[in-house]
Amino acid sequence: MLTDFWPLFGLRINTPRLELRLASDDELADLAQVAADGVHEADRMPFLTPWTDGTPAERARSVLQWQWRQRAEWLPGDWSLPFTVFHEGRPLGVQEISAQDFAVRREVLTGSWLGLRHQGRGFGTEMRAAALELAFVGLASEECVSAAFEDSHASLEVSRRLGYRDDGVSRRTRRDRVVVEHRLRLTHERWSAHRRTAASITGLEPCLPMFGIGTPER
């Protein structure tokens, strides 16, 4: 079976409403359609890379290429896990968790997107909470970082609701203009104090060598 060689396909995180897992190629087609249908309003750009500026077909292809690239370029010391987020069996968007030199640094970075029609229903908070469960419980991370532009109010609110604290700013270029990006950081202690969403993780143990670690001790 494919999971014998790529055990990440057996990794699952479940919350009361959502399931996070790697999608099959057929399911990736459905995910690509979610992106094609829109991720944000045309007058906004919550991402540094303007991958949503193209045609619907271009957006769909970029999602497929990005998903395949993360698998192809995976290394134990430099990895990116792009979970597809499912609700009632249908994809809503992506919750990514990534790291470099994780075995030494014990720090992960998260990023995400949701289809426009699925926003405003609390899914963003729930899927981030699921990723944090994997980070802090499954992988024994020490800290988790995130970032959002100053006008990405929903993303910043999710981070603060989950206990992140401000960790400085960066000046970035977006659509040929300077925009301020806020960095946020969450420690294990702060996460424990703000942990509200129940989540379960299955299929993790065979994946641990792919993250560059053995069985975590907490």
From TrEMBL:
InterPro entries: Acyl_CoA_acyltransferase, GNAT_dom, Ribosomal_N-acetyltransferase. It comes from the Bacteria. This is GNAT family N-acetyltransferase. Pfam families: Acetyltransf_3 (PF13302). Residues 18-187 form the N-acetyltransferase domain.
